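As promised in the previous annual report, we have extended the structural survey to additional targets. Below is the entry for DUF924 domain-containing protein.
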Amino acid sequence: MQPWQPLLDWWFGADGSATDIVAARRGLWFGKRDSQDREAEARFAALVEQALAGELKGWADEPQGWLAHLILLDQLPRMIFRDTPRAFAGDALARPLLEAGLERGWDRALTPIQRVFAYLIFEHAEDLPLQARAVELFRALLDQAGDAERELFADFLDFAERHQRVIARFGRFPHRNAILGRACTDEEQAFLREPGSRF
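The corresponding structure token record, generated without further manual editing, is:
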């Protein structure tokens, strides 16, 4: 078994349609539960630390390992280090890794639902050109989706567009300000009182 397979099995669960996988794993991906964060820490904290230290570069030599490496840099820190600055510690490392894999066509070797967790790295960037790329990539996923999964991938595109609008307006995600010790502007404070402003 490849060293990244237990992570991918945990993250995506059993094989199935994108709709089935999302139904089974949405709570893990977006649920923000302490028990899930602690499970992520217990199972994968050592790998996250290796990824952050640049010790897993060989994983990116094939698509599944590349995807797992991206998840270790982007998704797992957001769970293990939730509400601390280290939640975003892998972002700057994940972006060039994503770029390199896209150039090699690694994303096209993944299933559509797996590709979501590559493209989310651009969606998480406080950078407007990268936000535009995220929207472009999620729009392409929607265009390729079959009828049964169009609603699902339309939802992912909608979230990408919402992230893009926030960066276009503020140049950063205001909901990160407190965690990162950044002062909020009055406009950002007003925005953070709106429903859905914190994703």
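The radius of gyration is 16 Å. The chain has ten helices and no strands. These points will be discussed at the next consortium meeting with the crystallography subgroup.
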